[in-house]
């Protein structure tokens, strides 16, 4: 038979509540909150780095496909455009020499035939006035 002792009964451990100190002096609710914030931050970071957005409808899928195709076409056409400095004059930059092409006109043929230099002097005066 068992003998009765006069010792007090063994003390039960305190029940775990939200105010129970768990680790480093932090209470249980603080530890759970820090862990939840960390997990949420990881999920948000991964979603920002990897575009893991799932289109919901067929219409959205088709719209995104059309947008990607338009962007690709635009990028291909953009590669064929010459650099900006070839398209426009830069203010204060070097003045590009005008290319004068010989256009066969009646007056040009007459001047050439007579060997007149008077016409070229008039052109210089006109260029100076501009």
Q: Describe it for me?
A:
- With 130 residues, the chain is mostly helical.
- 53% of the residues lie in helices and 4% in strands.
- The protein has a domain at 28-79.
- The chain contains five helices and two strands, in the order ββααααα.
- It has a two-stranded antiparallel sheet.
- The N and C termini lie far apart (129 Å).
- Pfam families: TMIE.
- Keywords: Membrane, Transmembrane, Transmembrane helix.
- The chain crosses the membrane at residues 28-50.
- Residues 96-130 have a biased composition (Basic and acidic residues).
Please tag this protein with its features.
single chain; 130 residues; mainly alpha; two-stranded antiparallel sheet; 5 helices; TMIE
Helices and strands in order, then pairings?
Elements (H helix, E strand, L loop, with lengths): L20 E3 L2 E2 H22 L8 H22 L4 H4 L18 H9 L3 H12 L1
Separate helix tally = 5
Low-confidence stretches: none
Distance between the termini: 129 Å
**Secondary-structure element sequence?**
EEHHHHH
Mean pLDDT: 76
Q: What Rg do the Cα atoms give?
A: 43 Å
Cross-sheet strand order for the largest sheet: 1-2
Structural class of the helices, strands and pairings?
mainly alpha
């Amino acid at each position: 038979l068992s003998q009765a002792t006069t010792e007090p009964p063994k003390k039960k451990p305190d029940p775990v509540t939200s105010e129970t100190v768990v680790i480093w002096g932090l209470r249980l609710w603080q530890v759970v909150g820090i862990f939840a914030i960390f997990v949420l931050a990881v999920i948000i970071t991964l979603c920002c780095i990897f575009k893991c957005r799932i289109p919901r409808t067929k219409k959205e899928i088709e719209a995104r496909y059309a947008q990607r195709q338009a962007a690709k076409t635009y990028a291909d056409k953009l590669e064929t455009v010459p650099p900006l400095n070839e398209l426009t004059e830069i203010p204060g930059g070097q003045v590009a020499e005008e290319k004068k092409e010989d256009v066969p006109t009646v007056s040009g043929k007459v001047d050439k035939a007579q060997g007149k230099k008077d016409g070229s002097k008039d052109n210089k005066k006109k260029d100076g006035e501009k």
